[in-house]
Amino acid sequence: MAQYRITVEETFSWQGPIISIINDAPSEPSKGDRYIVGTPTEEDPFETHDKSIAWFNGTAWVFDVPEEGWIVYNIQTKRTIQFDGDNWINPPVILEVLEEDPVSPAVGQMWIVEDEEE
Questions:
Q1: Which of 25, 26, 69, 76 lies at a CB distance of 3.0 to 4.6 Å from 20, suitable for a disulfide?
Q2: Other beta carbons less than 10 A from residue 17's beta carbon
């Protein structure tokens, strides 16, 4: 599924979903892939962009430096995370996608749940 860039997205606290948090750029990205950069290694395309949102425009990586309050949905962990000005953290109340819900027939529906201590 292609993701198209919305030029005003940087002005909103809720940002588009990311695939996961990774340290180094994937070798074969697809247009629209989005990641949060963890701790990149030297000489990697992500070097010097730690904590940024990296997205692939089809030919090159573009980096958005997060602002305090930005929220993204992490597809890998099925949880929302928020930038507190220094780090990406689990917010006090999160959105979680439930893969299997015995109560509701709408599998994959989003629910607001209390954050659990990890």
A1: 76
A2: 12
